[in-house]
Write a structure and sequence with these properties.
Blueprint (H helix, E strand, L loop, with lengths): L8 H8 L3 H4 L20 H16 L10 E2 L5 E2 H16 L5 H17 L11 E2 L2 E2 L2 E2 L12 E2 H17 L5 H15 L3 H5 L8 E3 L3 E2 L11 H9 L8 H7 L6 E2 L6 E2 L5 H9 L8 H6 L3 H18 L23 E5 L2 E5 L21 H5 L6 H19 E2 L2 E2 L3 E2 L13 E3 L3 E3 L3 E2 H16 L1 H6 L3 H9 L9
Antiparallel strand pairs: 1-18, 2-5, 3-4, 6-7, 7-8, 9-10, 11-12, 13-14, 15-17, 16-17
Helix pairs in contact: 1-15, 3-4, 3-16, 4-5, 4-6, 4-16, 5-7, 6-7, 9-18, 11-16
């Protein structure tokens, strides 16, 4: 591993060849090279990638493959984190950190668990229902944890990890054949039409005894992957009008004009999750054909917009700048109100965060490294600079055994209130000192795709992904 104290931010920028002219711009350039990767990323990214991989490998339960939602307090498993973990293992093989046999063993343990996990409509002693799984599971038994919902989006993240494993483990070995068979079977049994409950759009979730959540996966957010997986199902595919329902609210999501025009969603994870597995470069559905650019370009513009928001800093938070930015769903200091610069402000613990003028926007001064680093494949010319700056300025408190801690807030400097977790410095503010699986996943995935399109190249071979895109009306690029 690289000793983070051995390089200054300026030296790493020089080593990485990141141009200061683009990094200093306030708006995205109108044209830039759209290759699968940008060469010579600063060496720090090798260290971040490995440390983040180690988080998934070290904290997961080898017996059943379950991965904690959070560490160092691994109270329960997040099925979404398992999906990211299944994607991280082949990256570890490709980088030489573990053997293919070790990755195969952990992957197979995971798939065998989910294939056998009990399903049913009861509230207890089950892991899922209708082929989907509960958002949170007990780390050891794998049964529903607390009052967790049956989650269509978290199950989708899990399925994407499984489909990636099925595409990666392509050898004739019996164990790799079983990986492919189990992944396909687990995905195929999910009844997506049940989750539509007679409507065009897919519900976000379901609770036993209470029924479906009212909110649907429509509009622009991370739910893109839910709809594409539902369209690509070999057994329970939803009709094409489900994608029409997804796109119908788009008029409410458009922001900007000219080169900044984009489908907006405040938290960066909404622009990152689907893109971690699906290569949207050069392919367009009807909505994006009309817009004149693809969803990859949309996420690139969203990344620049987040940086521009930090530079504008309408709420006057400390620490925001052109190279310290990033709002997404993440840990936060506490659920409380406190006076900041003469105004009472609301602060939150875990919450979705984003620019206040965008859908689902909320800003309490909490910055998450994953918001920037998870966009490395979209806009390396500004993400690399932000990563290096956060490391140089805050790394002694923010960078640990498994890479960047989940979040920090330079404005939250009060020790007179009970914080949820982490530490408060009266000068430098709050740092979370924990890691979340769903925030670690975009970091390792974005670095892998930025380096050599690792995940994208493999997922192009996934038949359900191609079928889902085609049924949604995507054309061009690698689909041609």
């Amino acid at each position: 591993m690289i000793d983070r104290r051995s390089f200054s931010a300026a030296a790493l920028l020089t080593l990485g060849g990141i141009g200061s002219q683009l990094a200093g711009a306030a708006v995205p350039p109108t044209r830039r090279r759209r290759s699968a990767s940008d060469p010579a990323l600063p060496p720090l990214f090798d260290d971040i990638e490995e440390r983040t991989f180690r988080w998934f490998w070290d904290t997961g339960n080898p017996a059943n493959g379950l991965v904690p939602d959070s560490w160092p307090d691994p109270t329960f498993c997040s099925i979404a984190a398992v999906g990211f973990a299944l994607t991280a293992y082949p990256i570890g093989v490709a980088r030489g950190w573990i053997s293919r046999a070790a990755a195969r063993e952990r992957t197979l343990a995971t798939l065998r668990f989910f294939a056998r996990a009990p399903q049913g409509e009861a509230a207890d002693d089950v892991s899922g229902y209708q082929g989907f799984f509960y958002h949170f599971l007990h780390m050891d038994s794998g049964l529903r944890f607390g009052g967790a919902e049956l989650s269509s989006v978290d199950t989708s993240l899990l399925f994407l990890g499984m489909l990636f494993a099925a595409a990666y483990f392509d050898e004739a070995l019996p164990d790799e054949q079983e990986i492919r068979q189990l992944a396909d079977a687990i995905y195929a049994r999910a009844d997506w039409n049940w989750f539509r409950r007679g409507e065009a759009a897919i519900s976000m979730g379901w609770h036993p005894g209470r029924g479906f959540l009212e909110r649907n996966w429509d509009g622009y957010n991370e739910g893109m992957m839910v709809n594409l997986l539902a369209l690509g199902s070999p057994t329970h595919a939803v009709p094409p009008e489900t994608w029409d329902a997804w796109c119908a609210p788009y008029p409410r999501f458009w922001r900007g004009s000219g080169d900044t025009r984009r489908l907006a969603f405040g938290p960066m994870f909404g622009h990152q999750y689907s893109h971690l597995w699906i290569d949207f470069r050069g392919i367009r559905d009807r909505a994006m054909r009309a817009a004149g650019f693809d969803y990859f370009e949309n996420s690139r513009r969203a990344t620049w917009a987040q940086r521009a928001y930090a530079m504008r800093n309408p709420m006057g938070w400390d620490g925001y700048s052109r190279d310290t930015w990033g709002l997404t769903a993440c840990a936060g200091p506490a659920d409380m109100r406190h006076v900041f610069n003469g105004n009472e402000r609301e602060f939150r613990s875990y919450s979705a965060r984003g620019p206040i003028d965008e859908p689902d926007g909320y800003d309490d001064g909490t910055i998450a490294p994953t918001a920037a680093i998870g966009s490395l494949a979209f806009a390396p010319e500004i993400v690399a600079a932000a990563t290096l700056a956060m490391h140089a300025r805050h790394g002694d408190r923010l960078y640990g055994k498994y890479g960047f801690y989940d979040a920090f807030n330079p404005s939250f400097r009060w020790n007179d209130r009970l914080i949820q977790r982490g530490t408060v410095d009266p000068v430098r503010g709050w740092v979370s000192q924990n890691y979340l699986g769903i925030d670690q996943g975009p970091i390792i995935g974005a670095i892998a795709n930025a380096k050599d399109a690792f995940i994208w190249r493999i997922m192009r071979r996934s038949a359900p992904i191609r079928l889902g895109l085609e049924r949604a009306g995507f054309t061009g690029g690698w689909l041609a």
